[in-house]
Structure formats: C-alpha cells, structure tokens
Design brief:
InterPro entries: Band_41_domain (IPR019749), FERM_2 (IPR035963), FERM_central (IPR019748), FERM_CS (IPR019747), Kindlin/fermitin (IPR037843), Kindlin_2_N (IPR040790), PH-like_dom_sf (IPR011993), PH_domain (IPR001849). One of its GO terms (biological process) is cell-matrix adhesion. Keywords: Cell adhesion, Cell junction, Cell projection. Among the domains are: about 10-90, Phosphatidylinositol 3-kinase Catalytic Subunit, Chain A, domain 1 (Ubiquitin-like (UB roll)), CATH 3.10.20; about 370-480, Pleckstrin-homology domain (PH domain)/Phosphotyrosine-binding domain (PTB) (PH-domain like, Roll); about 570-675, PH-domain like (Roll), CATH 2.30.29.30. By secondary structure, the protein is of the alpha+beta class. The radius of gyration is 28 Å and the shape is globular. The longest helix is centred in the middle third of the chain and has 21 residues, at about 310-330. It contains 19 helices and 24 strands.
Length: about 675
C-alpha cells in the first residue's frame, strides 16, 4: 500500500502524450496529479520527468476529447474540468501549414495552431508583407475542387509536383514578433509606385524576413498565365448553387486552426474575404495589390463573376499585353524617371480605392444647396406581354430621388412619378460600341423589386446620372465628396471600353506571341477562334497600352469593382415562413434575397438600416431587425450559420476603420461583432 501522505488522498493518474522527435524516448507518460495543480505546474512536472534537454517554450497542452487548448497556465486542472479519463497531448503551438495564395502560388510557413484564426492570419500577412490583414481569411477548398484534384492526380502518369515557396525561417516561426507589416505612414516607401519592385531602402527590412527580394517578386508580380488546358480543368462555378458551395469553407475567425480540425502541413486557401480594400497605396502595397488583382483575375476567368463580352476583352487586354509583359520586364527596366513618377503618382492618387465607410475627406465642403441634375432621358419599363415601352421625359435628380415630368415646362408642377432610390440596386446596362448607355434600377417595393431603366444619350450624361444613382442607393446625395471621383471613375472605365480598329492595331495577330484563350473565360474561347480573339484583344489594348504596371493592376481591380456582381458572396438559405429555398447574397453594404431559379433579386436590405441581428444557436437561425419594423429570419442550408453571422459582423467592423485613427486593429471589437454566443 502507498501511504496517503506520499501522494495525497485526492491524487490520480493523468495520461499525457509528448510530441517530440526522439525515437529512443517513450512518447506516452503518466503523471500523478491532484485537481488543484495548475497547468504551469503540470508542464514543469512533465518536462522534469521526460528529461529531454530542449526548448519547450512553444509547447502547450491540447485536450483531444474536448478539442481545445489549455493555454491559461494559472488555471488548475479542476477549473478546466480535466479528470483521469482526459487524454492530453503536449505539442508545439506553431506548426507548418501550406497556403495557396490568390496568385495560385503555394507558400509553406509556420503558423500558430493555438491562436484564433483572426490573429493567425494577421501573423501570416506580416510574413508576406500584406497590410490590412482583417480583409483576408482562410478557406477550406470545396469538395468539388478536391475531387477534381484527386481525379487529376489519379489519371496523371507522372507524379504531380507542386512548386512550393518555403518560408520556414519566418520571424513568427521563431517566436519573435514579425515585421511591423510596414504600417507606419511616416516611413520610407517600401515599393516603387510604378513598377512595384522593392525600393532600395527596404533591403534592410528584407534581411529580417523570409521574404528575400526574389521571394517578394514571386508575390508582387504576375507571371505568364496558365495553359488553356489548366484553365479548362479548373472548377467552373455555373449556377448560383455552385457559387454558394465556394463560400461554405471559411474558417471560424474566433477559433484556432487545431479546434477546426486542421492538421500540420494541411493546405488552405488564403483569400480576400471582405471586398473592402481600404487605403490601397502603391508605395507599401505591391504584394497586396498584386494578390487582389490575381483574385479578381481568377474570379473572372473561372466565371465566378459574370461580365459582358466588352468587359471581358478589357480584362483580357489589361492581362495579356500589360500585366504579363510588364511583370516579366520589370526587373530589367528602369522606371525611376522622376517626371514620369510624378505623373503616375497623380494618376494613382485618383485610383486609390477607399472604403465607403471611411472618411475620404475631413474638410467640409462649402455647399449651401444640394446639387441637382435635370435633363432629357428616356424611360424604359419592361412589360411581360408586350415590347418594352420607351418614352422620353424630363428627369430631375435631387437628394436621393428621381422625379420625371412630361417636359421641361411642366417641371414646376407635380411629377408623373417620384422614385426614391435609397436602398435600390443599380446595375449598368452599357455597350459603348453600340452607343448604349443604360442604367437599370431595381427599386424595393412591398412585394419585391420594381424594375426601371434609364437611357442616357452619351458618356458624360451617363457618368453623372450613374454616379448620382450609386450614391443615392447608399443614402448619399451629390453633395457628398465622393460624387466627382465616382463620375471620373465611370468615365475612365468607359474610356477603356471605347476602342475602334485603327491603323495602329496589329494587322496580323499571328505575328504576336500570345495565346488569347489564356486571358478569357471558357465561354468566349468556345465562341471565337483564337485568331479572332487575338485581334479583338489587340483592339481593346490600344486604350491601355501606355499604362505603367501598378496602374494597370489598379485599373483591373477598379473595373472588377464596377461589375454588378462584385463583392457578393452567395449562400443557400430558407427564409422563415417560406416553402422554398432562396439564395442570400452578402455584400459589404447590403443583403440581397435572390430567386434561386432565375437569379433575379427579390429584396435588398441595407446594413445602414439594420438595428440589430442575432443567432438562435439551438435552431441555427439568423434573425435581423431593420428600420420601419422590418424583420427577417433564415436558416442557412449551404454552410454553417456562423459563417453568415461573421460576414455581417465583419463588414460592420470594417466600416469603422478610418485613416485618421492609429492603424492598430481593435481585435476585441471584431470578436464582439462576429463571435456570437454559442
């Protein structure tokens, strides 16, 4: 018999498995413990017993049955609820992880498997030198994509080898704090704003980081496109239901990788989750701009987002001759000409992408009256059983409403109809070659959406009215400081679309070394022969041929942001009281209920009108309350409801960012808005 004085009357045996590399030492270990022993004391007891001289500072206890880390070293076993049947693993907190970046390159680096995903992504972005880590997250590949990959590997005669960039010696891996991510606004520019190459002053920074100049160029530049065969093999989302599957795999930002079943050396996708690219600055953001550009490019090529033929050719022109060729030549070209740099600085300042909720200007404009637009436009109302009725009217745009009259003379009286555009959907209906400049308005009414088209005469009229409609849909008037930049952005995009075949265009597309099918989606590859595609891409290229590299990428991003479906993440849901499934589109400023069969929007709800939202975790139902006593509730069928809850909270969190504030993130506020109370 062992006396009670030796072990204490309440001691018991605890089984611990130690994760170490020494084959001659047993991995399983039994310790005699009491419930009032704290976790720090348990670590000390274990290390003394196994007698392996090494640095154990990165090790912690993982409780396998409960799927949780025991990180609070001052807590006792009793407080954690650890009893004799518990199986603990003493393992490293930082483990290797493979990440597929938006540019389809794979990096391998050490990541904290014990920190919540929000913090782990922040550390990853510091290693990769990507600012604004809150815009990104980690995504598990969809099952369809994994099946295709396995099938390809099975059918391949040669073993599939992946080109992986190893960043094992990262500052985060070694337990040191990573690079500050170059967040300071007063520091020396990190990148050449024209070519995106690292500035000479940054070489000292690279010496502390796994990102050597060569590695940085892999992340900051775009290289020649994949083959048409590879593009054809990629997952092509077709229906809204297919697109919804892509968004089911987002990891929970409030839990760690290990808690979500991620194992060492697993592969995840690092993607921009929130489509609010705040404070893009070419001096600091060469990697970030390139990765956003790549995510946009692949979304267009794989038909995740729809665009017109005219827009597809613009995207192809910016990719084909511009980004690909300039990226290849950027290492040999000298872009340091000062006068050229000044011109590009001016152009890039106009292209800077800012969040709707950010303070774009702190200066209050001296406006006594809210501006208004008044002009002749044509009104088009679709009719189910007859042709569209197209009639000219005198339109007046004031505040956030459009009124129309029979003619200019009758504008002093009552309008035929007044359309309130607050909360409406604004969709461009443009074909520059055909001189068609239309604005499609989907205006919320009690039983759905009222569809109205406005037809403009020319580019300038269209840009002014389109910009006014876009701002009005967000509840802003033309007095807002973002009105003129919005007009210029629309005109700039129209100018890129406006090309004609000229003598400057290459007469023989065959003389150019290009594979046009690499730059457009499969739909257009099937529609046109390669020679025809090449000729059309060359025509479109005339308007972008003089752009420097970084500006071309920013223009591409800007054009992507102009697409009607930009920034929408889809989920299949069942609304309370409904007998059929619908699709819910989540965007940075609104939720859209979409008919799953036709793809038509049914209702739009703006975040600006939202009073509160919560989740009933027992029945997994999201409930949202809006102004004017509007309430909705739905269950999510294509993903966990926590993902939608986090999306809504995440976008509201991002809308609180401001350039005036210190650029440190309020992580506590993020978790309050997104964590939920499960």
């Amino acid at each position: 018999m062992i006396s009670s004085s030796e072990y204490g009357s309440h001691s018991w045996e605890l089984s611990v498995t130690v994760d170490h590399q020494y084959e001659e030492v047993e991995k399983k270990c039994s310790l005699q413990v009491t419930g009032d022993l704290h976790i720090g004391g348990l670590m000390l007891k274990l290390v003394e017993k196994i007698e392996i001289p090494q640095d154990w500072s990165d090790h912690a206890f993982w409780w396998e049955q409960k799927k949780c880390w025991l990180l609070k070293t001052h807590w006792t076993l009793d407080k954690y609820g650890v009893q004799a049947d518990a199986k603990l693993l003493f393992t490293t907190q930082h483990k290797m992880l493979r990440l597929r970046l938006p540019n389809m390159k794979t990096v391998r680096l050490k990541v904290s498997f014990s920190s919540v995903v929000f913090r782990a992504v922040s550390d990853i972005c510091k290693i990769l030198n990507i600012r604004r880590s809150e815009e990104l997250s980690l995504l598990k590949q969809s099952e369809d994509a994994l099946k295709k990959k396995k099938k390809k590997e099975k059918n391949s005669k040669e073993p599939v080898t992946e080109d992986i960039l190893n960043l094992c010696n990262s500052p985060v891996s070694s337990g040191l704090s990573g690079s500050p991510g170059l967040y300071s606004k007063t520091m020396t520019p990190t990148y050449d704003p024209i070519s995106g190459t690292p500035a000479s002053s940054t070489i000292t920074w690279f010496s502390d980081s796994p990102l050597t100049e060569q590695n940085c160029s892999i992340l900051a530049f775009s290289y020649p496109n994949c083959s048409p065969e590879t593009l054809a093999e990629m997952h092509q989302p077709r229906t809204l239901a297919d697109k919804a599957k892509l968004n089911a795999g987002w990891l929970d930002s409030s839990r760690s990788l290990m808690e979500q079943g991620i194992l060492e050396d697993d592969q995840l996708l690092l993607r921009f989750k929130y489509y609010t690219f705040f404070d893009l600055n070419p001096k600091y953001d060469a990697v970030r701009i390139n990765q956003i550009y790549e995510q946009a490019r692949w979304a267009i090529l794989s038909e995740e987002i729809d665009c017109t033929e005219e827009e597809m050719l613009i995207f192809a022109a910016l990719q084909a001759y511009h980004v690909s060729k300039l990226s290849l030549s950027s290492e040999t070209q000298d872009f340091s000409c000062k006068s050229e740099a000044d011109e590009v600085e001016a152009a890039l300042s106009n292209l800077e992408v800012t969040l709707e909720g950010g303070n774009t200007s702190t200066i209050l404009e001296d406006i006594t009256d809210i501006p208004k637009l008044a002009d002749n436009l044509r009104l088009v109302r679709p009719r189910k059983l007859s042709l569209k009725a197209i009639k000219p009217y005198w339109f007046v745009f004031k505040d956030t409403s459009v009124s129309y009259f029979k003619n200019e003379e009758s504008a002093q009286g009552e309008p035929i109809e007044k359309l309130n555009l607050k909360g409406c959907e604004v969709v461009p209906d443009v074909n520059v070659a055909a001189k068609k400049f239309g604005i499609k308005l989907l205006i919320p009414v009690a039983d759905g959406m009222n569809e109205v088209y406005l037809r403009c005469e020319n580019e300038n009229q269209y840009a002014q009215w389109m910009a006014a409609c876009v701002l009005a849909s967000k509840g802003k008037t033309m007095a807002d400081s973002s009105y003129q930049p919005e007009v210029q952005k629309i005109l700039s995009f129209l100018k890129m679309k406006n090309w004609t075949t000229s003598s400057q265009a290459v007469s023989d597309p065959e003389s150019i070394d290009m594979k046009p099918e690499c730059f457009v989606s499969l739909r257009y590859t099937k529609k046109y022969k390669p020679k025809q595609l090449a000729a059309r891409i060359l025509e479109a290229h005339q308007n972008v041929s003089q752009m420097p590299l970084v500006e071309a990428k920013l223009r591409f991003i800007q054009a992507w942001q102009s697409l009607p479906e930009f920034g929408l993440s889809y989920y299949i849901v069942r609304f309370k009281g409904s007998k059929k499934d619908d699709v819910l589109g989540v965007s940075y400023n609104r939720l859209i209920r979409i008919d799953i069969a036709t793809g038509d929007p049914i209702t739009t709800w703006r975040f600006s009108n939202m009073k509160q939202w919560n989740v009933n975790w027992e029945i997994r139902q999201v409930a949202i309350e809006f102004d004017q006593n509007v309430s909705i509730a739905f269950t999510c069928l294509s993903a966990d409801c926590k993902i939608i809850h986090e999306y809504i909270g995440g976008y509201i969190f991002l809308s609180t960012r401001s350039k005036d504030h210190n650029e440190t993130l309020d992580e506590e506020l993020f978790h309050k808005l997104t964590g939920g109370q499960e």
